[in-house]
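Possible race condition, two jobs.
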Amino acid sequence: MTLVQLKHLIELASSGSFSQSANKLHLTQPALSRSIKALEDELGQPLFDRVGRRNELTTFGAQIVQRARALVDEANELRRTGQLLKTGELGQLRVGMGSGPGAMLMTPLLMVMAHEHPQAHIDISRGSTQLLVQALRDRLLDALILDIRSLQPAADLKIEALKEMKGTFMCRPTHPLAKKRQVTFDMLRDYPIASTPLSDEVARILMERFGAQAHPNTLVNLRCEEISSLLDVARSSNAIVLAIRASAPDLVELAVTPALNAKARFGLVTIATRTEPPLLGKVRALMHEVMKD
């Protein structure tokens, strides 16, 4: 039994004429007859009685046609839903974001979804890289957006590097160090240092530039997964925040010597064997648009 046969049945029930139905369906009359006969054979009962020149549904046939219409309507709705899912007008996207991408991307992404895809569903999760990766592997998330330097290489993960962004030490404009032409590491250490958890790569760069005391476990006084909270602390205190420069244009970048010269490499992470959700293309495009130094 196929949807095509059910459509033939519905059309014949409507017209009562094999010739008219065959013409409308762009079939020969024998082909339509074979289609209806095959359906009757499968169902085990006649669907039509010949009454004069008209074919009328049997009692059994009338019940089958009612179910057939429901099935065909559901199939049409399924096709329409598939098209809406494909274009992102419907569907669900579950994204995990690291602290840096979250500070720059979360609000713009929610705004785009609200304006352009109001019937779709998006869930954004925040947390440590380790927890986000586990959620991705558990199929609780569809994709991650984070600093891919914090990831351990793994065969099951598909990693797409999209943006490199400058990391730096920043403070409020009225900070005692804000107008210094040069800021040494010792001068930094006179103030609390705030940061999200840093990758091994960033820890290595810090220690190469400033020595053993620059290891994050020693250097960072205020550590938090939410960069937005750390930026607020820097705006209202003498704390110095180590973060992506673009995450806080209102703060002052300190002229630290030697220069830090560190960059975060943001990317999309998915499970290699999973098909990409249609809405993920919108996220990728937004990353290119929003995440700029």
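Job #2 (started ~2 s after job #1):
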Amino acid sequence: MALKNPSAPSPAVSRVPAMTPPSGVIHVNSRHTSHFTVVGNHLAQHRELSLVAIGLALHIQSLPAGARIGIKCLTARFPESEARIASALRELEAAGYLKRTRERLPSGRVVTRTVSYNQPGAAPCPVARPAQRAPRPEREHEAKPPPKPRPKPERTPLPAPRRPDPAGARTAHRILVELRRDDPRLLLSEADVARLTPAVSAWLERAAPPDAVRRTLTADLPPGLRSPAALLAHRLTASLPPPLPAAAPAPARPDPLQTCDGCERAFRAPQPGLCRDCRSARAEAPPP
């Protein structure tokens, strides 16, 4: 019988569990004896929460009472943006893992209180209160009044003709549709053409030549043109020409020359007859 070699190294102990699944994750677990947090699978495997929300809930449940968990504090702690953290907090509120309320302090300031639930809907465990007073949750942030929204500038309405003119409307429609021939970027939708047609009709009503309207709309287009309809609306409104002044009335034509029936002198009158002198002499002559 062969003797065992006492100097031979013992086989290495595998850290992989004996029952290894054919695929998927393999767990190598060690027992925690301190600094750990118990988290339910209802949170860790929640099917409706995002990974950011699940990780944030785990972080919040691991914090001691009174820790700050405002958006500013969490943004300083993690690389996620304020928008993503705020969205994750709203997810946890909707799922019942967080409850945030606002309270007004005796000083008049408003603060936000946050309560974390490790198992939404379950009865809380009774906690033995220590003899000394438990620390109150710190104020996360003071509510600031929302900034007043800036009033939006009123948009100048598009010009419109004073009197409807079907022929002018057809010409205005053709001008807008054919702008794409000057520049393909000026391809307009039917809705844009219908909206801008009255404005072009107003230009034509003010005796603007169609070619001049087209040149005004297509000249010096910006290189990064994204909204041709908005640009055309601005030009049609800002560059609207004034109406032409009313034409002066034609001077009255003098009466035609007539030959007096009494003295045969020429005089001006609308109808043939006697001149002024002959009419006066006839009026002063005594009756026969």
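The mean pLDDT is 82.
Logs attached separately.
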